Amino acid sequence: MGSLFEVLRTKLKEKGYKLTTQRRVIYDVFIENTDSHLSPEEVYEMVKDKYPEIGLATVYRTLQLLDELEVVSKINFNDGCNRYELNTNTDDHQHHHLICLECGNVSEVEIDLLDNLEEKIEMESDFRIIDHNVKFFGYCKSCDEKKSIQ
Ligand SMILES: [Zn+2]
Ligand SMILES: [Zn+2]
Ligand SMILES: [Zn+2]
Residues with beta carbon < 5 A to ion ligand 3? Predict the structure, then answer.
């Protein structure tokens, strides 16, 4: 995953920032948890072991910076906090999310049939769409099974 670090280093440099240890360890968490959608508190918990001097405020600030640099993306899952995930820059288009209303679990959907819908909306609304961002709310398998037992 050396190339992802190069992306971070280059982007920091472009904006006149340095690759500090704090920024590095926080970015590390995302490289080690590519499928996760982490809140600042969760990132803090993971970083604390390796880097006990770090404070939650620093984590907040660093996440904001990484989001500005577009190396991570901020997503709001309506669960009362902002979450962040690694932006691998392989595709401009962000995948879609399935959000469980019971346990808060977030999973990702790769299937995307929305291009047709975009075309239709563009024709009917006189609006040029450049992207979309979709969240599906419902119940994950294990929550759904629990619900049907009750
Ligand atoms: Zn669930
Ligand atoms: Zn995601
Ligand atoms: Zn899509």
Answer: 112, 114
Does pLDDT of 29 surpass 90?
A: yes
Domains of the chain: 1-90 (1.10.10.10), 94-150 (3.30.1490.190)
Percent of the chain whose pLDDT exceeds 90: 64
CA 118 to ligand 3 center in whole angstroms: 10
Give me the sign of the Cα torsion angle 66, 69, 73, 76.
Answer: positive
Spatial separation of the C-alpha atoms in residues 114 and 119, rounded to whole Å: 9
Nearest ligand to the CA atom of 84: 2
Q: Is 111 left (phi over 0), alpha (psi -120 to 50) or beta?
A: beta
